[in-house]
Specification:
14 helices, about 350 residues, alpha/beta, binds S-adenosylmethionine
Length: about 350
């Protein structure tokens, strides 16, 4: 079926090109050196990868779970022959991906979470509550879609997702309205869902965010398992980075930022008091595996926010790997919300 004219167009000429967020700050924190091997775990439109490749004679292994992003990146790979390897996969699997490339350890890992402008602006991807499109929201185009979820889960399950992953106070009322509406006909489009949420919540005049923002965020995080991926990605980066290597992460909402903040706090704090009495193996296990490069997160300046409003909620956190062994991954300790039922 032909999509309506304009349905795929954010601006004349197609979906807006993604503008990299805090690019200068990212480069400054990652400091790629000549000969370095860098993992760009969220390739997107390749803004970061391109900047790393231009800054110095490094190599980049770029990962994206979205096959469209990887296909579009081939043009950039041709500009830097033998220096940019594109891989369609999850950054949570970066250890396997990097090992398959014959690389044992890397000098830098960059993660720029969430969606690219191409994904957000293309109505057919179903991420936007403003544009009419199929209720899809799958970053990697595999597995159940958002429509499958809203049309099959119970009201209790939907309320749990919307409450925990959207931090939405009225999750039960929204879940009830979804279940009532789907009894008439399946919910198939982004607009149908955002109208249901807007009817439950109403819209306050001074509320800058669309009322469906939190519900859409929750469904997207749930079906793409984004927070588990984030925790797995941080842990994989910890195992892959050389001593002196850098991990730099840009987040866009509080759930993501809390996980990164806890990860770095936990990994950069010396062993708990009394640890000198611990056996040697345990003391090594608790030795800081990272040194923080910034105590407070770096935020975009006003001129960047004016140029690119999507940067406004971005937070950049960065740390340098020490020589201590990697710690074990504990999802609950990092604040990954636990959902009581499976997908
Ligand atoms: C904000 S964009 C990155 C933009 C990029 N830094 C640039 O300058 O063009 C995020 C990208 O990460 C991808 N992504 C999100 N989660 C991922 C995951 N767990 N593994 C691999 N790619 C992921 C998305 O598909 C999207 O293309």
């Amino acid at each position: 079926m032909m999509a309506g004219r304009g349905a795929h167009m954010a601006a004349v000429g197609g979906p807006a090109r993604h503008i990299p967020v805090m690019l200068w700050e990212m480069l400054r924190a990652l400091e790629p050196g000549s000969g370095a091997i860098i993992v760009d775990g969220t390739f997107g439109a390749g803004g970061y990868s391109k900047a790393f490749l231009e800054a110095t004679d490094c190599k980049v292994i770029a990962i994206d779970r979205d096959p469209e992003a990887i296909a579009a990146g081939e043009a950039l790979a041709e500009v830097f022959p033998g220096r940019l390897k594109l891989v369609n996969g999850h950054f949570g699997d970066m250890e396997d991906i990097v090992t398959r490339e014959g690389v044992e350890a890397v000098d830098g890992v960059a993660l720029d979470l969430g969606l690219s402008s191409m994904q957000l602006d293309k109505a057919s991807r179903g991420f936007s509550f403003i544009k009419e499109g199929p209720l899809d929201m799958r970053m990697g185009k595999e597995g159940p879609s958002a429509s499958d979820i809203v049309n099959t889960l119970s009201a209790g399950e939907l309320a749990e997702i919307i409450g925990k992953l959207g931090e939405e106070g009225r999750s039960r009322a929204i879940a009830k309205a979804i279940v009532a509406r789907r009894a008439e006909a399946p919910i198939e489009t982004t607009k149908e869902l955002s109208d249901i949420v807007a009817r439950v919540l109403g819209r306050k005049r001074d509320e800058p965010k669309h009322p469906a923002t939190r519900t859409f965020q929750a469904l997207r995080l749930y079906l793409n398992e984004e927070l588990e991926e984030l925790a797995r990605g941080l842990s994989a980066a910890e195992r892959l980075l050389k001593a002196g290597g850098r991990l730099v992460v840009v987040t866009f909402h509080s759930l993501e930022d809390r996980i990164v903040k806890r990860f770095f706090a936990n990994r950069s704090t010396p062993a708990p008091r009394g640890s000198r009495h611990l056996p040697e193996a345990s003391a090594a296990e608790f030795a800081p595996s990272f040194r923080l490069l910034n105590r407070r997160p770096v935020e975009p300046n006003q001129s960047e926010i004016r140029r690119n409003p999507r940067a406004r909620s971005a937070r950049l956190r960065a740390a340098e790997r020490t020589a201590a062994p990697a710690h074990a991954l504990d999802l609950a300790a990092l604040g990954v919300p636990q959902i009581s039922f499976g997908m």
